[in-house]
Write a structure and sequence with these properties.
By secondary structure, the chain is of the alpha/beta class. The chain contains 19 helices and 14 strands. It folds into 3 domains: 311 residues, no CATH class; 62 residues, Electron transport complex subunit B, putative Fe-S cluster (3-methyladenine DNA Glycosylase II, Chain A, domain 3); 105 residues, HprK N-terminal domain-like (Udp-n-acetylmuramoylalanyl-d-glutamate--2,6- Diaminopimelate Ligase, Chain: A, domain 1), CATH 3.40.1390.20.
């Protein structure tokens, strides 16, 4: 989303662009990005705490640990109740399927399960918001059912119940700027896999499996990986896509009016779906292997009561309490004419930039940097290429009046001969050890850096009207060279540095 800029060595996130996909957390080698999830200690602060764990959690503990054991271990961590969200995922699949059958004009229906995808659509594809299925995703549906149905049945007051979603990513955290407003009334906290993994390992030790909390089949477990929803929603022409750029490509096609025969789209910004979430513990390939084994063990067909799901839909349990708010990126300018002019200016500046996407300027790429400059959020000088280009233009328009004497003093160069010419102006520099090359290409007023110390260098300097000769690498002029330089008034300077280092220092002086 190009939502990060580096300013003064610090990463700054642009909230209007960020969709909370978590990729920055995943890839940053310095740990500069942190995900704000709920600490496990928060559970003890509530009178009635209920855990609703993503079925992805079942894939994190290897082949031998069963989903039921994991649910029982969660209860040992202090939760009053633990809900099998895999079972609710199966209900969600049925509800989405029913909605698609009831609305054949909706092509395609887009699953709302990945909040980062929902935010991406609200941000960059607001015209596709109408395609998002208005069926509460499992984490919100679970919290709603817990507070509206389970709590009264247990004699709990709904306001005393806190629902904690155990999640593989931070994208499910709701914020005040979030377009996914349906999260806020129900889910009270999101605990990451990385936060709860260690305590769960301890809780699994010596666990007695006297109770069965698992209700889901392999159809609910399959929600952990990309394709699980598409396989469960029984309509023709479904498509599942995972990975940020791949999702963008598909949404581009949908916005352009392509894929018109598609009925259902399952999209995840994480690779392999939730198995590749930024806060998972297990390698996603091994986790996928574990998930596939569990699907085979518990069967790929759902055992939920479809009539019950229809009844719950009629009772509006799956309905959103609020819509998804479009959050398009701000225009270049409120005035369309000014926006066009700014776009042209951005294109013109981008054409001048090297296109190397080095990131030194603090922007992710040259086009983004050009946009920041035109919008007044960055300076051209932030790009080293543009800084050097501006310096070269200034030098061309206003030749430097720095003298040989000033250069010798500032860089600590020894004057070996020709001191009578120290007040000559230096307008440029040239580095070469081939006299023929210098005669062909060096410009008058240049400071010539070379390792050649014989008297012919003085003849060439006089011929090309060079400002001075600098012998690099600690080399000194021959006696006859010094004598000739004194006679011609050509300064010969001596430096212990090599040509590369000295040329850099001269460049810093504006030469």
């Amino acid at each position: 989303m190009k939502a990060i800029r580096i300013q003064r060595g610090v990463a700054r996130i642009l909230p209007e662009r960020c969709v909370q996909c978590g990729d920055c957390f995943r890839v940053c080698p310095h740990g500069a990005i942190r995900c704000h999830t709920t600490p496990l200690a928060e559970v003890a602060r509530h009178k009635h705490a209920v855990a609703a764990a993503s079925p992805t959690l079942f894939s994190q503990f290897g082949y031998q640990v069963t989903p039921n054991q994991i649910l029982l271990a969660l209860r040992r961590l202090g939760f009053d109740q633990v809900v099998d969200m895999g079972w609710l995922c199966e209900m969600n699949s049925a509800a989405m399927e029913e909605h698609l059958h009831q609305h054949p004009e909706l092509r395609p229906g887009i699953s709302p399960s990945c909040p980062a995808v929902v935010r991406l659509i609200a941000n960059r594809y607001p015209s596709l918001l109408k395609n998002i299925l208005p069926v509460l995703p499992p984490r919100v549906f679970a919290a709603k059912v817990i507070k509206e149905r389970m709590a009264p049945r247990l004699g709990w007051l709904p306001e005393e119940v806190a629902v904690f979603h155990i999640a593989p990513c931070a994208a499910k955290m709701a914020g005040p700027h979030d377009p996914v407003v349906m999260d806020q009334p129900h889910v009270d906290g999101v605990i990451s896999f990385s936060e709860i993994y260690g305590p769960l390992l301890g809780a699994l030790q010596g666990l007695e499996e006297k109770t069965t909390l698992q209700k889901c089949s392999g159809a609910g477990i399959a929600w952990a990986m990309s394709g699980g929803q598409a396989a469960a929603v029984n309509v023709e022409h479904t498509l599942d896509v995972a990975g940020f750029q791949e999702v963008v490509n598909i949404l581009d096609m949908l916005e352009a009016g392509r894929l018109g025969d598609l009925r259902f789209l399952e999209a995840h910004v994480c690779p392999d779906g939730c198995l590749g979430g930024p806060l998972v513990v297990e390698n996603r390939y091994r986790a996928k292997s574990v998930t596939l084994r569990q699907i085979r063990r518990y069967g790929a067909l759902s055992r939920i009561n479809r009539q019950r799901v229809r009844k719950m839909m009629a009772e509006q349990l799956f309905d959103w309490e609020g819509g998804i708010t479009p959050r398009p990126l701000p225009p270049l300018d409120p005035d369309p004419r000014q926006a066009i002019l700014k776009m042209k200016a951005i294109q013109a500046l981008t054409a001048l930039l090297p296109g190397g996407e080095c990131g030194i300027c603090g922007a992710p790429d040259c086009h983004t940097f050009a946009s920041d400059v035109i919008l007044g959020q960055a300076r051209e000088e932030d790009c080293p290429f543009m800084k050097n280009r501006a310096r070269a233009l200034r030098a061309r328009e206003e030749p430097s009046m720095i003298t040989v004497r000033q250069i010798a003093e500032q860089l600590g160069l020894e004057v070996a001969a020709g001191s009578s010419g120290l007040d000559r102006a230096v307008t440029g520099g040239y580095v070469s050890d081939l006299l023929s090359d210098v005669m062909a290409n060096a410009k008058a007023g240049s400071l010539w850096l070379t390792i050649q110390a014989h008297q012919n260098v003085v003849a060439v300097a006089v011929l090309k009207e060079l400002a001075a000769v600098v012998l690099v690498g600690g080399r000194r002029p021959a006696d006859e060279t010094a004598t000739k330089a004194e006679a011609e008034g050509v300064p010969i300077l001596v430096s212990d540095q090599g040509a590369f280092e000295l040329a850099g220092r001269l460049h810093d002086l504006g030469i």
